[in-house]
């Protein structure tokens, strides 16, 4: 009978040990983030974590200009917003027959989609560049948006189909009996019932595209078309002496939208399994 | 129900996009990898058979890139993200609520942050005058010029910092599904922590381990921005993994045919992992 008696005390000890270990790990994960926050407030920021002697918002006002912040952020919004809209519309349309009708082709189609989800998209960028030069899509925002949309499409279809499977068919059948057409059923009955699912796919797609660096880095050339993901790199890579504080301030401005959006959908994505295949850079 | 083609019409836009912008480039990739296409000059492109591939396997730069990709993947994905993710998930089950929330938030924030911001933060962390050396100095430990001396280690750590959240989420879900009674029974029988881990926990989550290793590896194979922004593959070629090598050959050296052959090899490795992953998951659709 010794085990139950020893139980609670051991449990407390285990909890303390786990707390200590996790706190140490959390500190290691926090250090780069702390640097970001402190440097953005420090007019003389350098590369190490340091509490600013006289914290100001000067770095933020220095980057708060058309050239550094507004144009790239607006470019990002147009590029990623357009691509996200296209992805979500195509994914909803594709998910409907895949979820509702049976055919010999459904399974191979879905397996191909899942297979594509896992492919390293980075490897496709060289031929995409070659192809874009050929068909004159290079340095066009719509061309880049079309490719970005396609790159997220497999996962969006997969996720959307799973959400749609959760909507019972009974209601649609009632609508069909009343003489509704397929587009009407999709628009009036199915979509309203899977609102949260569509929201998750939309936000997730947008977050992925907002952070995407390689695709616009390859396909867009004109400085005035570059989204924030690339403009921050040119700012960081090409300036002779980098003003670290300003760079940190801009990083914060650029990251804030996706951090906020993630908080919005975190609960529904928390399981981790829903994300299978979703982590390509 | 009769087969009515019009019902499948909604699949058309997505299928069209996937064919034009994904299947198309992959097919084009197969074609140019067998040619000597160059970016500059209008000397014309001719078919060269397997020359690009023969050249790749004979090229020390390529072999270096393959080796570094293996090192980077093993260090950051298999050892780093996987083990640390499991450790975090396991510790979080025992920890108190505030510590759990705090750790989870920080690890996930590192994951949600855009790639280039993450690269920039870790560049600052690993620089000679950066935070890591400041801490080591304070602890009276030897400092290092990390990005110069051990660039692969630095970018691997960066990838662990950025990618561990995914493993943590997968393992948290997997551990939550282990029935409580089994662990408790083992505890009453006097099984120690390590033995419980080895004989009960690991076998019960083996499918999650497989999924996680596969997805981590696929993600790590395609990392470009993180490495490019931190080291540009340097110094010399000492952190030039396959994606960076591919970019360098195709664009900086203008050898589009050769760069594409490298891309095709990368794609084939990815496809192989994907197939294994799909089989391992025994996906139900």
Most extensive interface between two protein chains, with residue counts: A-B, 98 and 103 residues
- The averaged pLDDT of chain B comes out at 87
* Rg measurement of chain A, Å: 24 Å
How far apart lie the N and C ends of chain A?
A: 53 Å
Put simply, the count of helices of chain B is 14
Percent range for β-strand residues of chain A: under 5%
Query: Which class do the helix and strand fractions of chain A yield?
Result: mainly alpha
Shape of chain A: globular
Commentary on this structure:
- The complex is a heterodimer of chains A (281) and B (285).
- Chain A is mainly α and 281 residues long.
- Chain A has 12 helices and no strands.
- Chain A has helices at 2-40, 58-63, 66-100, 106-118, 121-134, 141-165, 170-177, 182-193, 195-211, 214-219, 228-238, 244-269.
- The relative contact order of chain A is 0.13.
- Chain B has 285 residues and is mainly α.
- In chain B, helix 1 crosses helix 14 (256-281), helix 8 (151-176) runs antiparallel to helix 11 (206-221) and helix 8 packs antiparallel against helix 12.
- Chain B is globular, with a radius of gyration of 23 Å.
- The mean pLDDT of chain B is 87.
């Amino acid at each position: 009978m010794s085990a139950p008696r020893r139980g609670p005390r051991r449990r407390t000890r285990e909890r303390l040990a786990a707390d200590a270990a996790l706190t140490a790990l959390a500190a290691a994960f926090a250090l780069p983030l702390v640097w970001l926050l402190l440097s953005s407030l420090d007019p003389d920021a350098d590369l190490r974590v340091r509490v600013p002697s006289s914290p100001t918002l000067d770095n933020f006002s220095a980057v708060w200009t058309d050239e550094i912040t507004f144009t790239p952020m607006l470019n990002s919004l147009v590029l990623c917003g357009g691509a996200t809209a296209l992805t979500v519309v195509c994914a909803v349309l594709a998910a409907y027959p895949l979820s509702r009708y049976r055919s010999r082709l459904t399974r191979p189609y879905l397996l191909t989609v899942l297979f594509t989800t896992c492919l390293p998209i980075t490897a496709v960028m060289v031929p995409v560049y070659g192809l874009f030069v050929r068909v004159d899509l290079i340095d066009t925002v719509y061309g880049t948006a079309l490719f970005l949309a396609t790159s997220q499409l497999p996962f969006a279809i997969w996720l959307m189909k799973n959400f749609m499977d959760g909507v019972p068919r009974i209601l649609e059948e009632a609508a069909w009996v009343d003489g509704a057409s397929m587009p009407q059923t999709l628009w009036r009955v199915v979509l309203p019932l899977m609102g949260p699912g569509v929201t998750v796919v939309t936000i997730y797609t947008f977050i992925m595209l907002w952070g995407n660096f390689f695709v616009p880095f390859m396909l867009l050339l004109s400085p005035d078309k570059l989204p924030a993901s690339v403009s921050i790199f040119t700012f960081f890579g090409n300036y002779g002496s980098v003003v670290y504080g300003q760079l940190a301030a801009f990083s914060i401005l650029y990251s804030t939208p996706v951090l906020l959006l993630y908080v919005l959908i975190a609960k529904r994505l928390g399981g981790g399994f829903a994300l299978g295949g979703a982590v390509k850079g | 129900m009769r087969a009515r083609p019009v019902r499948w019409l909604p699949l058309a836009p997505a299928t069209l996009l996937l064919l034009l912008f994904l299947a198309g480039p992959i097919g084009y990739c197969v074609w140019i990898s067998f040619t000597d296409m160059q970016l500059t000059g209008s000397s014309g492109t001719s078919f060269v058979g397997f020359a690009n591939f023969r050249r790749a396997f004979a090229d020390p730069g390529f072999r270096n890139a393959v080796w570094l990709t293996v090192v980077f993947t093993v260090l950051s994905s298999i050892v780093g993200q996987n083990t640390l993710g499991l450790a975090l998930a396991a510790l979080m089950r025992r920890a108190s609520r505030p510590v759990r929330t705090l750790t989870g938030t920080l690890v996930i924030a590192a994951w949600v942050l855009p790639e280039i911001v993450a690269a920039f933060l870790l560049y600052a962390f690993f620089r000679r005058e950066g935070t890591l050396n400041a801490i080591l100095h304070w602890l009276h430990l030897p400092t290092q010029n990390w990005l110069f001396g051990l660039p692969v280690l630095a970018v691997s750590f960066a990838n662990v910092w950025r990618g561990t959240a995914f493993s943590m989420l997968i393992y948290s879900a997997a551990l939550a599904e282990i029935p409580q009674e089994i662990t408790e029974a083992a505890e009453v029988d006097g099984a120690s922590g390590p033995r419980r881990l080895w004989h009960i926990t690991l076998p019960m989550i083996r499918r999650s381990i497989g999924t996680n290793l596969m997805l981590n590896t696929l993600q790590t194979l395609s990392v470009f921005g993180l490495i490019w922004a931190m080291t540009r593959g340097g110094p010399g070629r000492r952190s030039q993994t396959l994606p960076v090598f591919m970019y360098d050959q195709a664009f900086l050296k203008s050898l589009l045919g050769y760069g594409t052959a490298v891309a095709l090899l990368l794609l084939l490795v990815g496809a192989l992992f994907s197939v294994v992953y799909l089989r391992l998951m025994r996906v139900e659709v």
